């Protein structure tokens, strides 16, 4: 079909009814750089289909019906930068399937049915920066699953069936800036799990089954900007849990069962801009709770059991714009609680 197209650079065959590919159909397209076969009905791809495509940089196989990959499927794709296989029916990966892809920067395996990934599957992918494994059926990770991914910046594992994280699973990910493990079944985070992630800027632990945030979990995360732990089963947060988070801007802790805020919990959060503690079991707040959060703009405390607010709660929050403490049991407010808060635009009591 494509014989003689020796100068072809881009080929798009998406949104068709393809169910199979004839072997050798792309053999003459050795200058092709972009190939999209997305949104067809491909149930298989012959091994060696891409063997001569040494110039290919972008390959899209997403939204087909592939139940499996062969170990040599991507052999020869030495220039590939982007590979999307999301939205198929993959249940497993053969070991070595990505071994030739040492220049790959983007890999999406989201929205499949992956129940396991062999240890070492990504071992040669030292250039990979984006890895998407969300919306699969992974019940666990192996400690060496991400071995070799020294350039990885974004890792998405949301909406799987993870019940735990093995110690050391993230140890090679020194470049990681974004991690989400939300919408799993995690009941705890092992000590030192994030110790190597010194460049982390965003971590999403929301919608799991976590019961406590411990002091060592966020050690040395001085670049962390966003921490999401909402919709868990948190009943307590250890004092010092956030002591190294000097850059943190957004903290989401809503929809948990937190009953106490330890004295000084937020003292080192000098960059904090947004705090959400809605829908917990707080009956009181410690004095000076916001003394050091001088950049705080939005505070959400609604749907708790607060009976009072500490004197001078907002004395050191000159940027405060939004305060919500509706649906509590507040009978009175401290005298002058909002005095001189000239930036305040919304109060909900």
TrEMBL record:
| Cross-referenced SUPFAM superfamilies | L domain-like
Q: Which UniProt keywords apply?
A: Glycoprotein, Leucine-rich repeat, Repeat, Signal
Report the PROSITE patterns cross-referenced here. Answer: LRR
Q: What Pfam families would the database entry show?
A: LRR_8
Residues passing through the membrane, by range: none
Q: Which InterPro entries match?
A: Leu-rich_rpt (IPR001611), Leu-rich_rpt_typical-subtyp (IPR003591), LRR_dom_sf (IPR032675)
Name of this protein: Uncharacterized protein
Protein's organism: Guillardia theta (strain CCMP2712) (Cryptophyte)
